[in-house]
Design goal:
The protein is an alpha+beta fold. Among the domains are: about 50 residues, no CATH class; about 100 residues, Thrombin, subunit H. Helix content is about 15%, strand content about 25%. The protein is built from ten helices and 21 strands. The strands form four sheets. It has a seven-stranded antiparallel sheet with strand order 3-9-6-7-8-5-4. Strands 1, 11, 17, 18, 19 and 20 form a six-stranded mixed sheet that branches. A six-stranded mixed sheet has the order 12-21-16-13-15-14. A hairpin with a 5-residue loop joins strand 6 and strand 7.
Length: about 475
């Protein structure tokens, strides 16, 4: 007859899954352990209970998506079939002529004239042109020099009213600006000998390529977890792939906002092997040729006086009468406080402003999360911007407080002109689009049999986009910056 040892196998688990050596020695087992001495009912046999699992996934930080800025501001989408996007913008019809003090001399003998040798004036005026000093308001007429003559390097001005030139008429020491207001000719004289051509500037922005990927092996793809991802789907990798795609879309939009062009083959990175042209983002365009309102982090725009200064600048840029403001929370609250203290400003409800961007429907603006107010003939639609509040993005540094985008749906009542402010282009040709590419490679995992660059038991989700943002008339866009 076999002899039974007093010790159990050292790794045979008890009901509570413990395998401790002490617990496996006869006589050291807890009272609830099943043995001939303690077994009385089936209830004693089944002492463990099932864990309670709540299948709903908790979004700890709410909806973290930051995309949507370009769509809500009316940015158009269009395909392109080149390596860059080109567009042209017309310059100002009129121009201030800048001169420096070192190139300005008032006639010392009788103050009959003032000579200017600054090319900012000499290359842009001709005989008989009438100029006004921006500071003093005194009008001058060009007596000699200017373009179209053999003495273009010096322009001689005399007062239009025939009086002597006084020191207060024009700042010969520090320089200033002249306004070209027209010309005046005597009877029987010839037509002008030269003309000024229209100024057109060409802008170029290359496409940029944004990429990402997500991976899952075959074993993980078949695991069933505790979390319901929607529709009774408990495969966790599905949520991981959804998050990877959303993260890719967020970063794609971030690159459209913060991208920069780069110089090739120079500077400290001249040996960088993967050279690329870069691409101008939205904020880069504004910093280069737009309106930048400089505030402090602690004190964003919070007064009508500051908005009035901005409105004066918008007038100078021929801006449309309707703007969408995307701001961080601090700027958002500052504007709310400002509006609360100025009832006459008019806020959304009952507002006699412009709502062309929302089919002239104030209720639609409210439903989309905009709060609107008018000032000086301009309507501003305010909206908070998650990008600027997220502490993992720009919510911590507060360097960017917001942006103001001219609404493209509005036709300027003063000029009748209408043009898109923002346009996102993507590469496409013959039905093939690179706006948002997504494909899966894998060695049979999830039915994908193309191995690609991965192992035989892995599925790889690929994301790719080739895009370019064109900020037209950037002089009418506003960046709120600390």
């Amino acid at each position: 007859m076999a002899n039974l040892s007093s010790n159990r196998g050292t790794n045979i688990p008890f009901i509570d899954n413990t395998t401790s050596g002490a617990g496996n020695i006869a006589g050291n087992q807890p009272a609830y352990r099943i043995s001939p001495e303690t077994y009385t009912t089936l209830d004693n046999l089944i002492k463990t209970t099932k864990d309670v699992h709540m299948p709903q996934l908790v979004e700890t930080y709410g909806d973290q998506g930051i995309t949507g800025f370009l769509k809500l501001t009316g940015a158009i989408n269009a395909g392109g079939s080149s390596d860059e996007i080109n567009w042209w913008e017309i310059g100002r019809r009129h121009e201030l002529l800048t001169y420096t003090g070192g190139n300005t001399t008032i006639d010392a003998s009788g103050s009959d004239f003032v000579d200017i040798t600054d090319s900012g004036v000499t290359s842009k005026v001709q005989v008989q042109d009438v100029l006004m000093d921006e500071s003093s308001g005194v009008r001058f007429i060009v007596q000699s020099g200017g373009f179209g003559t053999g003495t273009a390097t010096t322009v001689r001005l005399v007062r239009l009213d025939g009086a002597d030139v006084a020191a207060a008429d024009i700042d010969a020491t520090n320089g200033g600006k002249l306004i070209h207001i027209g010309n005046m000719y005597a009877q029987g004289t010839n037509q002008p000998t030269a003309f000024a051509d229209i100024g057109i500037r060409k802008f170029t922005n290359p496409f940029m390529i944004v990429k990402d990927r997500y991976e899952v092996n075959g074993s993980q793809a078949t695991n069933i977890g505790w979390v319901d991802l929607g529709g009774g789907n408990y495969r966790w990798y599905m949520k991981g792939e959804q998050e990877a795609r959303a993260r890719f879309e967020d970063r794609r939009e971030l690159m459209l906002l913060f991208g920069q062009k780069r110089a090739h083959g120079s500077g400290s990175d001249s040996d960088f092997t993967n050279e690329f042209a870069g691409s101008e983002g939205y904020f880069s365009a504004i910093e280069d040729r737009g309106i930048v309102m400089q505030n402090s982090k602690a004190n964003p725009m919070d007064s009508f006086a500051e908005f009035d200064d901005l409105i004066l600048e918008l007038d100078k840029q021929g801006a449309p009468s309707e703007y969408a403001m995307y701001v961080n929370r601090k700027q958002d609250l500052a504007i709310d406080d400002m509006l609360a203290s100025g009832i006459s400003a008019g806020v959304t409800a009952g507002l006699a402003g412009q709502f062309g961007a929302f089919n002239n429907d104030a209720d639609m603006a409210i439903k989309l999360g905009f709060k609107s107010f008018t000032r000086g003939g301009y309507t501003f639609h305010k909206h908070d911007w998650k990008l600027l509040n997220d502490p993992t993005l720009l919510g911590n540094n507060g360097l960017v407080q917001g942006a103001m985008v001219p609404m493209t749906q509005v036709t300027d009542a003063r000029s009748g002109m209408k043009a898109p402010a923002l346009a996102m282009y993507y590469k496409e040709a013959n039905g093939y689009s690179r706006e948002m590419e997504h494909w899966v490679s894998g060695g049979g995992v999830l039915g994908h049999t193309n191995n690609g660059d991965v192992g035989t038991d892995q599925a790889v989700f690929h994301y790719r986009s080739e895009i370019s943002l064109c900020t037209r008339a950037a002089n009418q866009h506003v960046m709120l910056k600390a």
